Amino acid sequence: MSTLSRSDVANLARLARIDMTDEELDHLATEMDVILTAVARVQEVATADIKPTSHPIPINNVTRPDVVRPSLSPDEALSGAPAQEEGRFRVPQILGEEA
Amino acid sequence: MITRSAHEMAAALQSGDTTSVALTQAHLDRIGAVDKEVHAFLYVDTEGALAQAKGVDDSRARGEKLGPLAGVPLALKDVMVQKGVPTTCGSKILEGWRPPYDSTVVSNLKSAGIVILGKTNMDEFAMGSSTENSAYGPTHNPWDLTRIPGGSGGGSSASLAAFEAPLAIGTDTGGSIRQPAAVTGTVGVKPTYGGVSRYGLVAFSSSLDQAGPCARTVLDAALLHEIIAGHDPKDATSINAPVPQVVQAAKNGDVKGMKIGFVKELNGEGYQPGVRSRFEESLELLAKAGAEIVEVSCPNFEYALAAYYLIAPSECSSNLARFDAMRYGIRVGDEDGASAESVMNLTREVGFGREVKRRIILGTYALSSGYFDAYYGSAQKVRTLIMEDFTKAFTSADVLVSPTCPTTAFKIGEKANDPLAMYLNDIATIPVNMAGIGGMSLPCGLAPEDNLPVGFQIMAPAMQDQRMYQVGAALEAALLTQWGAPLLSKIPALAGGK
């Protein structure tokens, strides 16, 4: 079994956009080892000839007629926004400072 | 009145013996008296509930035709959005959020005249088996306040057992309706996947999540099931077929000639002796009622737990990406010059609890390139094997049965630091979600060693939900004859309710 180091977990936390403390990373690295060893059991029976199942019922694309129908008003859509300005979501800067 | 079944309450409303306002107020009073001890509710919507109740009473006075449960109150799990009512999913990240729309389940409840009392406590984003993972503190099991009420829907199950509500809505991704029902001596049903719309149900694991009814009797669950179920164009995974006739089945309760298969692998080692003995007694009662009991084997079920803890975290790591501090929920660290990414990182660090982070990291790992085939891919293959086990088992049995959980309710804090031990609670409930079929838990007695409720699980093939109700009603009736009174009549009185 591959064991996860603290820096591996830090990388996963970065990918998942969670700013974890060193203490959390250490704790999770230990826990992940135990959990991954347990869940790796799926490999014992998952042979190449078995088809994977992603969903319990067979689903094809589900569409609806392309007609305008009622939806949230701009005020309703913005009602939960942490910050808003001029009828829009106000967000922190998404480009670098020099931009 | 509050200890009666929802069906009886509805009859009292129809005959004019009581009003929905009086019934709703009685439940609000009960919540006020005992919820300090139980903590089933995160939010009580006193004004909204009473206004809704008055609306039903007015409709009735005008002679309008009302649904079978019109005017009866209900507790709503906090993962289900209700317009204007705070919805947190037990998480800090959604603290203070009031959804701008109703979920389809809530729309259906409102159309049926069901009065929504408030939102119930849960493990954060429905991840857990004890309700200890709520950011707002645990819920206590009314049978023993030092014990867990199950999870993730512990608030819904506890509200039923504490007589704070006769009906509740739960959601079940790996057992979150059935396990809480089992450990609180109540009834909980996970319908066939796609039977109840997921529109407005905050997603945890989209291929597994399913909302369903929670109640104190099989018939009450059936009545609620028919109200919330049905095709919904707003949910692309909703099944476009007639709702199974579950009320009729719950009223019928005849198991003569039915084949009931007990799953060999879901009993025995690891199951508490009192759980096994109550389960086996119930099997004998079903045999006496005319059912044929057969043994079935589902050899791949032993891999279900491992597959679940790859599939559910993988889907959750993707679903929970929406909590990005931009459009709703809390925002942390939005100071001059802070980037969107740093705000996102800080908000998610502060807003998510330990179990949610654990699963997001696990899912991120399982989906990452280089590990995808070994983990997520293998888990999907196990899912195929589990579905094949069910298909084979259902060729020799109409329904399958097992204990709902390996043990009765454990102590709060007992497993909080051992994720694997916690995950084992769901060992008998998870296969149902993996295959997308229906599962029910109903109370089958108290374990002799600790006097705590034991759950009996019934599983039926996809879209054959009525079979669970038929068998459940038969067992419930046989147990009632044996006991002379419902199991909940044995529950200790709460201090605030005395």
Blueprint (SSEs and pairs):
The complex is a heterodimer of chains A (99) and B (498).
Chain A lengths: L5 H10 L6 H18 L34 H5 L5 E2 L2 E2 L10
Antiparallel strand pairs in A: 1-2
Helix pairs in contact in A: 1-2
Chain B lengths: L5 H10 L4 H19 L2 E4 L1 H16 L11 E5 L26 H8 L3 E6 L33 H8 L5 E5 L6 H7 L2 E4 L20 E5 L2 H11 L17 H7 L6 E5 L9 H16 L3 E5 L7 H16 L20 H12 L2 H14 L5 H24 L2 E5 L15 H5 L6 H6 L2 E9 L6 E8 L4 H19 L15
Helix pairs in contact in B: 2-3, 7-8, 8-16, 10-12, 10-13
Question: How would you describe this structure to a colleague?
Answer:
The longest helix of chain A has 18 residues, at 22-39. The mean pLDDT of chain A is 91. In chain A, 33% of the residues lie in helices and 4% in strands. A two-stranded antiparallel sheet of chain A has the order 1-2. Chain A is mainly α. Chain B has a single domain, classed as Amidase signature (AS) domain (Amidase signature (AS) enzymes, Alpha-Beta Complex). An eleven-stranded mixed sheet of chain B has the order 1-3-2-4-6-5-10-11-9-7-8, with helices on both faces. In chain B, helix 2 (20-38) runs antiparallel to helix 3 and helix 10 packs across helix 12 (354-367). Chain B is globular and about 70 Å long. The model of chain B has no long low-confidence stretch (mean pLDDT 97). At the A-B interface, helix 1 and helix 2 of A face helix 10, helix 11, helix 12 and helix 13 of B. Chain B: GO terms for molecular function: ATP binding; glutaminyl-tRNA synthase (glutamine-hydrolyzing) activity. Chain B: Keywords: ATP-binding, Ligase, Nucleotide-binding, Protein biosynthesis. Chain B: It catalyses: L-glutamyl-tRNA(Gln) + L-glutamine + ATP + H2O = L-glutaminyl-tRNA(Gln) + L-glutamate + ADP + phosphate + H(+). Chain B: Pfam families: Amidase.
